[in-house]
Amino acid sequence: MDLFGFIECAKRTQSIKALFDLLVNCASEEGFSEVAYGALTCAEPPRLPEYLPPAVTVNFPPDWCHRYFERNYHVMDPVVRRTPMTSGPFLWDELAKQFQLQSGEQRVLDEAREAGLKHAMSVPLFGPFGQVSVVSFASPADDADPQYRISHLYILAWHFHLAFAEIARPSESGCNRKVPLSDREKDCLRWAAEGKSSWAIGMILKISENTVNFHFKNAMRKLDTTSRTQAIVKAVRLNLIEFSASPGLPTEC
């Protein structure tokens, strides 16, 4: 299933399990079949009963999950500890280069690799009131390249995160809320979704780069988001802009 198919199917599902299965299916297409989603702040979303904090839902190898929770590895897990300090997606292999990891932190990474999580990355998910969650993707394959897939998995993680919130807290999700984006704000979001920079969008719309950034700032404020990527994802979920898909891509759920 491609990203467009995931977005369309996620809009229609009302089951957390079905939504997570969609996430695993789509990530597996990218070569990363091991997935975990968790909240790192006390304001965490409702948790599936079979999982302990900080995991909300996970399909990592069962033996690794058992060892992880039995030994309270979440206390020393560098992914859990360092995610709030990281603004964007990161590779687990790069953590030791970014931070001076303690011996316990390095042990968790080493044991995770031995358990089959050979190449992995995580996506920090920041809410408007300081909430922090994370989606982690891992591959059991020796030749997997998370750096090559990082952009796709980043967008996928944010779509899942927002869809999860709508299912877990339907009364607070705002999925039916009308957000008064201006036409210019929508135009800027659409072109950004196509990968255009502020400068390029300004050339296309015949406005200055500063004006483009002004529209982005307003759109992010109205959508209660903290980055352009989050704003684009939320605008798509609210049907304020359309996600461009190539002809012939499957959308069956």
Polypeptide structure, described:
The protein folds into two domains: 3-168, Beta-Lactamase (2-Layer Sandwich), CATH 3.30.450; 183-237, Orthogonal Bundle (Arc Repressor Mutant, subunit A). The chain is α+β, with helices and mostly antiparallel strands and 253 residues long. The chain is built from eleven helices and five strands; from the N terminus they run ααββααβααββααααα. The chain is 47% helix and 11% strand. The N and C termini lie close together (9 Å).
What topology does this entry show?
Elements: H1 3-12, H2 16-29, E1 34-39, E2 55-58, H3 62-70, H4 78-82, E3 90-91, H5 95-98, H6 103-114, E4 119-126, E5 132-139, H7 146-168, H8 183-193, H9 198-205, H10 209-222, H11 228-237
Antiparallel strand pairs: 1-2, 1-5, 3-4, 4-5
Short structural summary:
This protein has 253 residues and is α+β, with helices and mostly antiparallel strands. It contains 11 helices and 5 strands; from the N terminus they run ααββααβααββααααα.
Number of helix segments?
Answer: 11
Average pLDDT, to the nearest integer?
82
The CATH C-level name of the largest domain is: Alpha Beta
CATH architecture of the largest domain: 2-Layer Sandwich
Beta-strand residue percentage: 5-15%
How many runs of DSSP E, i.e. beta strands? 5
Number of domains: 2
Features:
single chain, alpha+beta, Beta-Lactamase, 2 domains, 11 helices, disordered C terminus
